[in-house]
Amino acid sequence: MKKRLAFLLPAAAAFLFAAFFLYTLLTSDSRRFNQITEEFFSASLSGDSLSLHYTLADPSPYLDPPHPACLPVYTADGQRETGAALENLLAALREINPQRLNRYDRYTLSLLIPYLENELAGTRCAYFEEPLSPTSGMHTQLPILLAEYTFRTAQDLEDYMDILESVPAYLEGLAQYEKEKAAAGLFMSQADATAVVKQCDQIMDPGLLENGSHFLQVTFAERLEELIASGVIDASQRESLISEDDRLLRTVVAPAYVALADDIFLLSDSGSLEGSVCQATGGSAYYTYLLRRNTGTRRTPEEVNELLSAQFQSLLSQLQELLARYREQTGGMPQTLSLSAFPLLDPQEILTDLQERISTDFPAIPALSGSTFTCITKAVAPSMEEYTSPAFYLTPPLDDLGRNVIYINNASTPPGLELYTTLAHEGYPGHLYQTVYSQSHENASTDNPVRNVLSFGGYVEGWAYYVENISYDYAAELLTQSGGSENDLLLVQIARLERNLQVNLYCLLDLAIHYYGADRQDVLRSLSAFGITQQETSASIYNYIRMEPTTYLKYYLGYLEILSLQEQARAVWGDAYTPLRFHTFLLQAGPSDFGNLERLLKGRETETPVEEGLSASMANLFFLKPMEIPHQVCQ
Predict the structure, then answer these.
(1) Can you tell me the distance from the alpha carbon of 226 to that of 594, in angstroms, rounded to the nearest whole number?
(2) What's the pLDDT at 620?
(3) For the sheet containing 2-3, what is the strand order?
(4) Residue 556 and residue 412 share a domain
(5) CA 305: distance to chain centroid?
(6) Proportion of the chain above pLDDT 90, given as a percent
(7) What integer pLDDT is reported at residue 441 of this predicted model?
(8) Three-state secondary structure readout of 541-590
(9) What is the pLDDT of residue 381?
(10) Element (H or E) spanning 462, and its range?
(11) Angle at Cα 331 formed by Cα 329 and Cα 336, nearest 5°?
(12) CB 179 within 8 A of CB 263
């Protein structure tokens, strides 16, 4: 999973007037486009210091950062103003003649209009979004983002302290939103609320804070040492800064979490949604909105269901054939799909191996100007293992792509084949590689950063899942070079098919629950039919899908859309098709919806995209990408 910042953003009321002012005064389409989009970019980040820090190492070319630094605070008025701001923004963009823009800006405009139309439609159904989901809520994501907040300058250190000061207001805003959800009859279930309360109590563990071993304290001290080593601050300041950080964590941040837990506890018996979003009025429209926003597909839910069903049957047939071959060769069935003696176990060695194997079919990452490229792996803190993904990649700022970090959750990512394919997903040729390549290409093509505040999860996670599938072939190559048996190679292919079949099934269940209205018992019966009979495992799968609509689809439907593009590329390019050319095309296009990628592939990017309006959700709610798909949920 690739993590980007996404918080409750206040409506950009100032941008509303600025856009129209520029629209009225400027006559050049190119100038108007750049002014409007740059204002939109600035407004999207101006009240959110944490997102700004993760997006730009040096924001000065684009906006003046807020002082003091702060987190955004949700208000009902801000939510209501978002729709009007989006309407005005769209009106300004629709006046731009795309033929008068350069090729790059023309493509950006083609991305912006349908994206913002969908967000505008989403404002018509409030309070479905859940920022405090037990599986991906901001209360669990915020500490991780704070722990990885890079200290480059003394100002960064000051801003970090200011952000800690603003945590109570941020969490109070989330609590206010939850109270409004409850009043609208859309509050989370009692079981979910109980889980959130428990998480809030555990995340800022008072015992760990008291003895100085909380991961936020440990990582702060480590980053402080980097500043001292680089001469940014003097070593004599170390103790006073550590003392101030401890004070803020113990007396500001920790009490804010206690207050949030208290608010959720008081609301816990007001929840009415125990299953699918389609139970509530507007829920089906909200799900369709999510499908479009999170996957970038143009397909209807019915078309997606048909595509998945056909793919499921194909995968099942392939798996049955491989299992029959394995049975013929060994006289039995594989007891586990984890290889006990995989040649590489160290994360850094795996990343090095993957870098070498992708060199033929993937373009080299352009040299980074003025930056040393590094990639390090870190273990998720034991206290956070229960709440975080099996692994995740933290996206670097667009103007400082050199420092890259992949977190590995050792509690849920065992060494061996699973770690290898996970690091392909997160590292090479997955999120890290795609992010650095696509952003480097964008930086060389334009000074306009507006695409960095758009979210195309289907492209991003679809790419990572697509290359994860390719990495099983790399694993087979590695095993062959290390003297692996034919049975080992069969196990690798069985593992790939089993994972795809599993995730495909979860996508079908996602549609069944949230679009067709299947209940818990329907889902448990379906899982049982495929051999998943343990009550605890079945309940875990059902609850994750229930709490995270379209998450599995973001990965798997995005992957299928990329496979569809690949077939179209073969048809369009004929004998000139190569994997290298196709991958270069996708990477240079960058995160996009699949309708625009198809038009770009066929040389029809100048056409005006036609997108149907969708209703539901809250356009001013942007959240971190949810928890990674668990590997091997059914053992």
Answers:
(1) 42
(2) 25
(3) 2-3, 391-394, 403-408, 374-379
(4) yes
(5) 23
(6) 74
(7) 95
(8) HHHHHHHCCCHHHHHHHHHHHHHHHHHHHHHHHHHHCCHHHHHHHHHHHC
(9) 84
(10) helix 457-481
(11) 90
(12) yes
In a domain, 39, yes or no: no
Q: Are residues 208 and 175 in the same domain?
A: yes
DSSP 249: I
pLDDT tens, residue by residue, 519-548: 999 999 999 988 888 989 999 999 999 999
Report d(CA 140, CA 381) in Å as an integer: 12
In a domain, 216, yes or no: yes
Tell me, yes or no, whether 406 and 553 share the same domain. yes
| pLDDT at residue 340 greater than cutoff 60 | no
Whether residue 259 is found in the same domain as residue 400: no
User: Residue 251's domain spans which residues?
Assistant: 131-274
pLDDT at 622 over 50: no
Q: Tell me how far apart the alpha carbons of residues 320 and 497 are, in angstroms, rounded to a whole number.
A: 10
What's the mean pLDDT in 10-31?
54
Which of 315, 330, 338 lies closest to 486, judged by CA? 330
Q: Which residues sit opposite 374 in a β-bridge?
A: 403
The mean pLDDT value of the chain amounts to 88
Q: How far apart are CA 234 and CA 231, in angstroms?
A: 7
Which residue shows structure tokens 């997903």? 425
pLDDT 10s digits, 60-113: 999 999 999 999 999 888 878 888 899 999 999 999 999 999 999 999 999 999
pLDDT of 26 reads: 46
Q: CA-based angle 616:40:77, to the nearest 5?
A: 50
**Does any domain span residue 35?**
no
* Residue indicated by tokens 């992949």: 406
In whole angstroms, what is the distance from residue 11 CA to residue 27 CA?
27
SS3 605: coil
Give the DSSP letter string of 293-331: HHH---S-HHHHHHHHHHHHHHHHHHHHHHHHHHHHHHS
Phi, psi for residue 398 in degrees, rounded to 5: -65, -25
Place of tokens 């019966």: 525
